[in-house]
Amino acid sequence: MKAIVLAGGEGARMRPLTPGLPKALLPLLGEPVLVRAIARLREQGFTRLAVTMPPSLASARRLLGDGRELGVSLAWIPEPEPLGTAGAIRACLDWLGEEDFLAVECGPLALDLQAAAGFHRAGRAEATLVLSRLPAGPGRPAVLIDDGGRVEALIPESRGSACASYGGACILTRRAVERLPPLRPAGLLRDLFPRLLAQGALLRGYVSEGCSPSLAGPEDYLRCLAGALEGRLPLDRGLPKRGPGIWAAQELPPGVTAIPPCWVGPGVALEPGSLIGPHAVLERGASVGPRSLVQRSVLLEDARVGARCTLYGAVLAPGASAEDGSVLNEGTLLGAGATAGGESVLLEGVRVWPGQRVPPGARQAVSLVHGPGRAVRFGEDGVIRGGESFSPQLLLTLGGVLGAEGALGLGHGGGPWAQALARCAGAGAAAAGAEVVLHDGGCPSAGAWAAERYALPVSLFLSQEGDRVSLHFFDRQGLPLSRPRQRRLEEALLRGEVRRVSPGRAGRWEPVAGLPAAYAADAARRAWSGGGSFTPVAVSVPGHAPACRILAAALEALGCVVLRRQADGVPGFSPERGGLSLSAWDETGAPLPPHQLLAVVSLIEWENGGGRAALPPGGPDFLRSLARSRDAALLCPGEEGWEDLYAALPWYRDGIFAAARICARLGRTGERLSTLAGRVPRFVVLRREVPLPGGDALERLSGVLGQPAGGTLRLEEAGGVVRLTPLFRRAALRVAVEAADLETAEGLWAACEARLRALDREGTQT
Fold first, then answer.
1. pTM
2. Is the dihedral of CA 52, 58, 59, 65 positive or negative?
3. Separation in Å, CA 419 to CA 427, 429, 436, 440, 469
């Protein structure tokens, strides 16, 4: 019988080991998983083998060739794109021919596969699942079988003695696989087996006395190695036995304590005073410094542990290092070349991606994906963004840090992951003794409004878009956190400074329902300043996102006729960035971008408000010239009174308020939006970034112009204005170009970019 080794899995749960080391090539006591699987199949009489091969296994193909040196005939079936387990088998049909065949996951095979093949031949089933007595778990569903071995159902949990778990192997007929469409991703457990059951095909289950553990994640890897050391898995240790339960390529040095079972590969350096084991595996070239403890952990090739370190339940990829005094707790994983800095503490489950470094002395509570602390750092816009780096543990820690301020506003929107993480943040804040105001606002601008409305010291809103989650923070005025406050929060997270109180002093949860309606009503009330009559205005608000619904409710409360679709001859509004900004179009359909609307709002403030406008941070420089042309008051960031004025004018930072303010003006005067916008000269704003590896182009340009360096640099050019702002997260400048038309703006941009790159090259060369 032919056999297929399914080696194409991405190993997502093994990250960050698998980006540089495919799961099939992970070492099991000195030999790759794939070689172990091939050897076990050969021992059981399967010598005609095929391996499904993703591009990452090209090196294995060069090494193993046709399998002759392993005593088998080996074919390699390319899998250029992930096809899933069943899809990969479907791609092997030309090699298989018409006979029944065995398919196994690439892992340690401790099942009796020859007996399973005999059971299959006798039962004439379309598929025979090889089962084990291991409990069900991820990648190992329970299988319900009757007394004759017929599969009745795949179920998530065990139901007594008639149930076993899928063991990672099956025997299939060609016609079973042909039920799947070719060249499409499909899984055995997710697609093929359920389809066969639904179509009434005969599936049987053979319960093997052995066990074949899954290698889905690092915890499975450690468990598998422990089973091999204890003899529960049939793996040849391949090294001399130096004592009971101790296998080592050479005698252990004096002063080293080894607690069995443990395995020490060739070229491993152990310093006096170190203690390894039980269940320690040290692959070729690894090293352990003096007075370090390595238990139930794996050090792959050339991984290094310094002096006075403690590792329990950790995995170090090739070339990773734990520096002196570091502590790696259960489930920690260092990718290839990653480093745990001296005296750092990695809490349970922390994973450090290849090449990244945990800072010395840090108490790392969250996985490090993008660089030192980057996974929990604010972006240039005051928002923290992430994906898999946002763990429940991180949000618990974040909630504990924020909860130290006494109260926390909390909201979420976009998906169940944002909701789950928000609950974790709230739990951390309550454990710190804070009152948690949980609202149903549904969008970031509602979180900002809640902070102002309830005078909360800090408000957190989590928004989800696909697999990405964004964390928005607001102070008690509804403004984004200041940069110094962002830094303090980053530092507290890095050090793990989490406040905890006694159970009797835990904070209360205060649910707030109906916040969207209250937010919309407040926007309508504050947008209408002074007396007079209001002529109903017809406006369009398409879209069904939470911010769109709140905007529609606000304009209806103001007295507008709101159409929930675009319509000819009707102006329209669309909240952007979760309601934090606004775009619009006039009655002719001409778009009014956010910077144009800021100018319209300023015009309204000068004519219908308090007479003073506020330039938002990073707002268009054009507002300065507009104010000068009207002899009007415009306060800019840094000027006395700006902060209080900006906080008092929510239409500058809130798209819902901005639309209500504009519609209030239209209803008061009877103007068309196109007429009102026509009173503001048209202008174009281009915002782009210029990477600058040299790093000092801005300083050089400042010296040429005689302007101080360090902040935003303003250049008045023929036809427009250019503003250059250094980015604090990377070596780049944000360039904002303003001009009367797009052609002029593009010309200014090109000239500015060329000048900056020339200055940067000078800095790089010197």
1. 0.55
2. positive
3. 12, 15, 14, 11, 10
